[in-house]
Write the structure tokens for this entry.
Amino acid sequence: MHKLDEILREIKSRKRKTVVLAGAHDVEGLKALKKAMEENLVDAILVGPKEGESSARELKLEAEYFKVEDPEKIADLTVKLVREGKAQILMKGLIKTSVLLKAVLDKETGLRTGEVLSHVAVVEAPALDRLILVTDGGMIIKPTLEQKVSIIKNAVKVAKMIGIEMPRVACIAAVETVNPDMPETMEAAILAKMNQRGQIKDCIVDGPLGLDNAINMMAAKVKKVEGEVAGRADILLVPDIHSGNFLGKAAVYLAGGRIAGVVVGARAPIVIVSRADSADSKLCSLGLASLLA
């Protein structure tokens, strides 16, 4: 797939998945769900306080509504609905992320799989001839080497779902040479070697690579950076949450691109959207989650 619209078209040809919205008094979340339902992408279940039911009614959003006032009970019920198979996608509404994730990660009643939860953004930009995945710009603040291995595995699963059979993973740093004073470059080199030895499978990992020579062949040739990933990366593994967050937003606000994001690693994909996200971004995120569910 080369465009986010291709993901949406693919979803429309499949059986609709059900999204459960945690904190359904979120008017923007309700609007996003209504649009997705009108596009025949998903069905919905709503969980939240009674004022959310009025908002859903005003928007003419037809969905089952569970009236729950307490945020922790809202989170518990949404997770329960996923565990019982009544919903396949979890979406954050007006509820603190920490409260929702506490329920998701509960050892007894949550949606744990043993994997790290990480955020994967799928970016479409005018300057690119393909979709690029950026991770992790939304969950883990400063991932350890071990966590980076899990983050790569999660991103590879998403890449394969959008048709990239052997994803090329670039471990991004400020420079493309190993520098002991820059720990990110050291870990990038270690990840590349782990991949060569079969410790990270189903992808090709290289690094450190700069952003330019990771995604642009001309930049790679000028800097004489060679390898199977240079200039052709499908997945950009960023060193911390800040760089991933900046990169995703820059693609949208500076380059006029589009973005879809989802948290993976749990038993169901989790959609966590910002109020500032465009309606298109929210729709694409729900489409991506539906593809993964």
